Amino acid sequence: MKVRVFSRVLAVTAVTTLGAAGMAAAIHAAAAPAKATAAAAVKAAATGAKPYDFNGDGYADVALGDPYGKVGSLSSAGFVSIAYGAKTGATGSKKQVISQNTAGVPGSAEATDHFGYSVASLDYDHDGYADLLVGAPDEDTTSGSNAGSETILWGSKSGLTGTGSQTLAEPSNAGAGHRFGFALATGDIDGDGVTDWVDTSPGDAYFWTFASGGQALRATSARTFHPATKFRAVRGAKSGLKADAVTTLDALIPATGDVDGDGRTDLVVAWRNSKAEPKSQYGFDVWTSVEATSPANEVLTKTDALAVGDFDGDGYADVAAGASDDSGREHSHLVVFKGDASVGMSDSTMINEDTAGVPGATALGDKFGASLSAGDVNKDGKADLAVGLPGRTVSSKARAGEAIVLYGSASGLTGTGSQAVSQSTANVAGAAEVDDAFGTGVSLLDVTGDGRADLIAGASGENSLDGAVSVLLGGAGGVTGTGSTGFGAGTIGVTGKSAQIGRIVGRLG
After folding, report:
1. φ, ψ for residue 95 (rounded to 5)?
2. Is the model's pLDDT at 199 over the cut of 80?
């Protein structure tokens, strides 16, 4: 389909996002006056809403990407669904579904557009209501089929609205099969105190950073979304790659955090390349400056999921790479690479279900590390990590799935005190069933406004791919089923659309 795209020459506007890693970065910045971004961050925070607080009520809302959902009879056209947060959590009682057929949203839904394949949030226009960025990597544009697009949905007092929403395409070099909108992440990557974001187009091996401009520090009466990219980069020829393996990738996944501890948010971009030689098919690059022409470091490691957080509280964000497909060492696992000033990434720790203190035992097909999210559940100043295991057998039900929360400490992530959560956990809604795939998507996000990250876990296979979501509250003792909430496709109003709600869950970073 043809979509309306906008000028590529105007400055971007955005607002600061501080997750667990960002909090550590802000603290560390106090020791580095040359990187004086704290004042700008405070100024920006005073004028913008928290990410995912679409109605400005002080509570983050649960944003779900449903790229495989039907719109009318159009399979995999995709949509996003929202469950609004409250002091008691998100129940789905106040909800919303937005597709490309929603009034005001540019274009129209088509089969296999996959609208909602990626989501991220920031208060772009600084009006006190968070906005939602939505990727549709298989959107057809004037540049060709599956060129991809990204749409902004504006927040308002009543929540997200299609009214005035706007769409952009890959800023340059757009083309068929590039799949712009594949993955999104937010963070203050240029250090000016307001949030920027990253979008990827693996089909041409590019990622795009959209940098903030001066107008970001004030709300405008007329909403405009005319961002220009300040910097672009392509993953060039690397050791072990054949010449024809650098022009297209299978996946590009970004995440943000202050890896080198200089007070500025860094960009970590994971990639997957099936055309490369086996040892070079997976890895991630760490970019410490958006002005650089090459990354500060590249790590070759299996990376099916990615999260960045300061798990040991030393002021340097660490990189967690999930390897969920049972190849490589010890079947599915994750590896945590310790951040430091040199971005050496030489100190790493592998964690799996055989790690001391981690519930369960490694089994083929568990998919440990299929999804990851960092956040501070117990409010101890150290990031914790939610790990999805959608293939895990629970209560003798194959592939019922579970999530495990690993807790940060002075020693970093360990199995000590870790918790396994599933639909067999006391007070969690529903029951473990074959192929529920609980843990397909996980997010650590504070939906109750108490300063502690809550666990949002999706079960995308629930009720024959309708999907379901559970929200477990964070506390001093970790996540708990007590007071948890849950909702399925019926509550959201998308039963029978193969929505797989819970597959894509909005998260920070």
Report:
1. -140, 175
2. yes
